[in-house]
Design goal:
The protein is an alpha/beta fold. It folds into two domains: 151 residues, Ribosomal protein L4/L1 (Ribosomal Protein L4, Chain: A, 3-Layer(aba) Sandwich), CATH 3.40.1370; 41 residues, no CATH class. The protein has seven helices and six strands.
């Protein structure tokens, strides 16, 4: 299928042919949801930790004699029921990562790209280059394109002026094509691809 190519000023710059195998799939929410769960689980630090009864700094001697007091039988004051004792079954440092086959991850990315094209939220720009690192000028360009909440994907390297100008604009994320991912695609309203990014994606999924 073909899609109109725009310049940063909002003018027409020809057409680009998009592969049906990447942008023409019928989006499946279950595959996309599995990928997002995988990404968020992998992103979670897992550094939460509480001390168990073997780790708290407290005496381990028997609190009082076993018999004759009329009170319950207890041993160490480190037990979870006592103030200052260790926590029972508390969180420990661990990885939250789950398994997801590489082929499913690749398929989820194609479904996310197809979903953006189907909802008419995909824009192709001929080149992401700014003559100067001026945020105000880039905001004007984005307004002409109707962009207020977008993920912008460039080629292997992002133009330094464009990157500097875009980083202070709220709700606008800029990534090289290597960093494209399902979560960032779906958390932003529009997806903006440069022609170099389209070529790189088609080469990647060839």
């Amino acid at each position: 299928m073909e899609l109109n190519v725009k310049t940063l000023d909002g003018k027409d710059a020809g057409k680009v042919s998009l592969s049906d195998a990447i942008f023409g799939l019928e989006p499946r929410e279950d595959i996309i949801a599995r990928m997002i769960r995988w990404q968020l689980a992998k992103k979670q630090q897992g550094t939460h930790k509480s001390k168990g009864r073997s780790e708290v700094s407290r005496t381990g001697t028997k609190m009082y004699k076993q018999k004759g007091t009329g009170r319950a039988r207890h041993h160490s004051a480190r037990a979870p029921q006592f103030r200052g004792g260790g926590k029972a079954h508390g969180p420990v440092v661990r990885s939250h990562e789950i398994d997801l086959p590489k082929k499913v991850r690749a398929l989820a990315l194609r479904h996310a790209l197809s979903a953006k094209l189907k909802s008419e939220d995909l824009i192709v720009i001929d080149d992401l280059v700014a003559t100067e690192a001026k945020t105000k000028a880039l905001v004007g360009s984005f307004e002409s394109l109707g962009l207020s909440n977008a993920l912008v994907i460039g080629g292997a390297e992002i133009d330094s002026n464009f990157k500097l100008a875009a980083r202070n604009i709220p709700n606008i994320d800029v990534l090289p094509v290597q960093g494209i991912n399902v979560y960032d695609i779906l958390r932003r309203g529009k997806l903006v691809l440069s022609k170099a990014a389209v070529e790189a994606l088609e080469e990647r999924f060839k």
